[in-house]
């Protein structure tokens, strides 16, 4: 009789490899520019912590449409996916930050508030709390984006150098060398004919 022992970590590790590590390695191996990856990841994080759950994917889609080729779409969406647990945990801090900015009354997160919400008695309070959370995010988003971009540029530079499988072309190697000026074969032939 064969017995199988199931380890919780094994399932979680295979999920992590399949859903996060695998796609990240594919992105890094494509040889995308580190600044573009850092910009895209910062955008994905900033939009991924938007305080209204379920809206972040649409925001990322709109951002990708607006930024076009300046963004790396798979990176934005992967980071948005990774950021989901952080989004849920930051709803209350954004709410409190927005309340602090406006000086408005605190929305008490109790079971009583949930009952009022479900019965429709606290609709105005819920609307104010959503507005406060949005205000907190709007104020914090540029700071979060800038900090993440500054932190991620060196990280992606190292990661792309380590995992990139693209080999620089001969012209890229020549252009990086300061000793020889870059000339095309056509220009060389013209110089020979003029002499």
Strand content: under 5%
* Rg measurement, Å: 25 Å
Largest sheet, strands/sense/barrel = none
Distance between the termini: 89 Å
Low-confidence stretches are 1-5, 173-191
Number of strands: 0
- Helical run tally: 9
**Percent helix range:** over 70%
Shape: elongated
Order of helices and strands: HHHHHHHHH
Describe this structure in words.
This protein is mainly alpha-helical and 195 residues long. Helices cover 74% and strands 0% of the residues. Helix 1 packs antiparallel against helix 4 (73-82) and helix 3 runs antiparallel to helix 4 (73-82). It is elongated and about 60 Å long.
Describe the SSE topology.
Layout: H1 8-29, H2 34-48, H3 56-67, H4 73-82, H5 84-102, H6 111-119, H7 123-163, H8 170-176, H9 185-194
Describe this protein with a few key phrases.
single chain, 195 residues, mainly alpha, 9 helices, 74% helix, disordered N terminus
What's the short story on this structure?
The protein has 195 residues and is an all-alpha fold. Helices cover 74% and strands 0% of the residues. The chain is built from nine helices and no strands.
């Amino acid at each position: 009789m064969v017995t199988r022992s199931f380890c919780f970590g094994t399932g979680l590790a295979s999920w992590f490899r399949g859903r996060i590590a695998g796609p990240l390695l594919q992105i890094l191996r494509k040889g995308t520019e580190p600044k573009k990856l850092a910009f895209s990841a910062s955008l994905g994080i900033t939009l991924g912590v938007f305080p209204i759950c379920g809206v972040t994917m649409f925001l990322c889609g709109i951002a990708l449409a607006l930024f076009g080729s300046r963004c790396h779409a798979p990176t934005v969406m992967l980071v948005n996916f990774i950021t989901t647990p952080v989004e849920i945990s930051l709803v209350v801090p954004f709410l409190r930050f927005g309340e602090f900015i406006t000086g408005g009354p605190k929305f008490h997160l109790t079971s009583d508030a949930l009952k009022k919400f479900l019965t429709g008695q606290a609709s105005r309070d819920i609307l104010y709390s959503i507005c406060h959370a949005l205000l907190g995010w709007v104020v914090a988003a540029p700071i979060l984006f800038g900090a993440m971009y500054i932190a991620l540029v060196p990280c992606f530079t190292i990661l792309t150098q380590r995992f990139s499988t693209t080999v620089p072309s001969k012209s890229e190697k020549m252009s990086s060398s300061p000793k020889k000026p870059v000339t095309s074969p056509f220009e060389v032939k013209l110089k020979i004919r003029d002499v």
